[in-house]
Structures are given as C-alpha cells and as structure tokens.
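Before the break, one more example. Copy the sequence into your notebook; we will annotate it together after we see the structure.
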Amino acid sequence: MAATKKTVYGIYNDEEILLKAIGNLKGKGIKCVDAISPFPIHGLDQALGLERTRISIACFLYGATGTCLALLMMWYMNIWDWPMDIGGKPSFALFKNMPAFIPVTFEFTVLCAAHGMVITFYLRSKLLPGVEPHVIHHRQADDHFVLTIEGKEENAAAMKSALKETGAVEIKE
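Here is what the structure looks like once it is written out:
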C-alpha cells in the first residue's frame, strides 16, 4: 500500500527565521513546497528552489499582439475601409502615416499587455469570482509567514518537531 502525503504548515513571525528554517529543513531532507508572505522576501525563491517565472515572455507576447492589432486597426480604418485626406496626409500607405499613429500604437500595446497580465495573474493564482480563498492562518496577510512542507504520513511527527526546532510559533495540519 502506497504511503499518503501529509501537508504541514509552519507559521513564523519573522522573515529571517523563515529563510533560515527553509535551509535547515532542506538540510534534514524535508520538502519545502511553498511560503506565504505578506510582502516580498528577497531570496525566498532561491531558498525554495523555484524556477524563474515565464511571465515576462507572456507580457511580451501580449504587447506584440496589441501592436499588431493596433496597426491592423489603423490600416483597415484609414486605408482600406474609409480613406480620407486629412491635413494632406497620404491615405494609400500605412508606413507614410506611421508618425501620426505612434501614440495610438503605443497605448494599445500597453493596454493589451496590462490586461493580458492581469487576466493571466488571476487565472494562474486561481483568483476567479466565486472561488473561496485558502486561508491557513488569519494573520498570513498581516505580519505572519506560512511555510508549507510535505512528507509521508508516517513522518508527520518528525515534520512537526522539525518545524518547532526551526522557530515556528504555530503548526497546523
């Protein structure tokens, strides 16, 4: 019969203690999965062994999509569908009109990148309407830090004692 996984949460009240605890727990062979913090902690990603995020690639792709859509929109409106001679601007080629449309292109690029990033953030962090948040400790967004560790069911007592040794003020299962 396969052993079941056990998740234990250690609550800390100082970020330096949390960072040291992650190193100590990893040294003992305990798998540190995640940490919840009310503010960014420098070095936490490296301590947990998390890979670099690919969110910047997604942002670039959203921005490139916005640029292409803006240029397509301006070409369609000003050259193909309803060409008009306004102020002597030529209406037969998009590249001759580009200096006038740089602000529109820039703004639409930023609009698409920003909206795409917000939607991606909500989807990746599962912050959708109607979803109940998983709150481990009532002060995890104020001044406490939550460390999530995983191990086998039979090692639960050892994981709890290891958390206590590293300075956890509270332990939850």
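The radius of gyration is 26 Å. Residues 91 and 117 are 35 Å apart (CA to CA). Try to locate both features in your own notes.
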